[in-house]
Amino acid sequence: METRIYEVFGVAGHYAKDGSDISTWISSRPQNVRPDSSATFRLARKWMETCSNTHSVCSRPEKFMPTRVLDVGVQHMPISVRLVTCSDLQETYSYAALSYVWGSGGRLPRQATTWATFRERPKMKLDFSNLPATLRDAIIVTRCLKIRYLWVDALCIIQDSPEDKTYELAKMPEIYKNAQMTITAALGPTFEAGSLTRPKPSHVDSTTLFKIHGRNLFGRHGTVHLSPIRLGNTFRSSVPVEPTSMRAWTMQEHMLSCRVLIYGSQQLRFVCRSMQRTDGGNIAASLEAPGLIRLKHDKKNGPNSDKPLKAPSLLPWDKLVKEYTKRNLTNPEDKLVAFAGITSEYNKLAPDTYLAGIRRSQLVHELMWRCVAGDRKPRPEYRAPSWSWASVDSPVICSSFHRGDINSTTLRLISAFCEPKIPSLPYGEVSAGALTCEAYTQRASITASGRHFLLRSDSSKVWPVATFDTILEDGALEGTFQNVVCFVVSSTKPN
User: Fold this and answer.
1) How many CA atoms lie within 13 A of 309 on its CB side?
2) What confidence tier does 312 reach under pLDDT thresholds 50, 70, 90?
3) What pTM, to 2 d.p., does this model score?
């Protein structure tokens, strides 16, 4: 038998087509350049129906509808869009919800609902052609999924009414949790970007350099296609970072949903608790599944297996905080509000007292949060007490130590309280908060040089790494500062 060894110069990506014997060994597929095709919509609808009808572990939407939704009509009729009040409907209907990025400017999308337009909306149709591209595409997708109603925050919340916004924010967990499908416009940095016009393949050129025909070690025959990778990009083995991956609000929109259809820059991806599917590209890479409960899947098939094995487990709070604080907010005062839906649902699964994002039962461990080195920012205006991670704008790591590494704690909690700024948003912005604790203290001095700090105790013990929550406006300190008092929360086991 003749054996040929190919040496490929330059940079190349590879893929196999579905149905070939070798496709079980090659995790990449040709990229679908037509996410707006009838075939792609049928595929998306198939994924949704499979999940709805066969996945016992995926949550079932309750009989719930938001205060208002868009009536987008039915698929084979001319597009007609109206804002309707759900209490006026005769029964409860399935609806989709949109998750997207507004844009860094924070300006309202065209035709956003305000008090001036709200009074007229029930009597008139919205001008579909004048809606931002992302909203138009979401309406098309909703109709093709055979869902008649769609919830979009910009159109279903009265944007210049603080009372309506507060009321609807409190319902956010229920809105996304009970949506038949959450449609995520992941590739667009603004609401004008759209989601159905996918950019030209950015990581692998559609041109096939050449094909390799052969068989694997088990005798299965197939063809591997090699394609050039565009300069400046790599053939990713993971899901690309999209604009929605970096926005704070979209984290809870994803986590609270029962199933999500993600229109990304390289592929369409369906994600639920039981499976992940794509329309091409890298099919092995996986996203965090929606929900706060994690299921242990078959190791061979990973997230593409719908046969969970071991008992489900609750996502660690530390992991959620770390991921959330990496993301961006247009309005810094929304730091706790944009996380409130996750906090509310987490509290149902693991009841606790939440003190501006810190759980009272885990106080010792969670007080030891720190800002990521090299990414500390000046402290913003008050929105949470200084001992809470929500008081800073920097990415945060909850603790450098595992709970098993903590040898002892001297901390004794005497009292704790946080006062929500808006009573109907108990996990939102805080107007006041305080901890009263008892613990040993340690006198020390700090030597500062630029952004680097050295902490030395009176007994000459030195901690080579000292981190602070924020930096001064000029970003630097110089000199030695005496008579610093350190509050000793806990000590770690010696190495």
Assistant:
1) 9
2) confident
3) 0.83
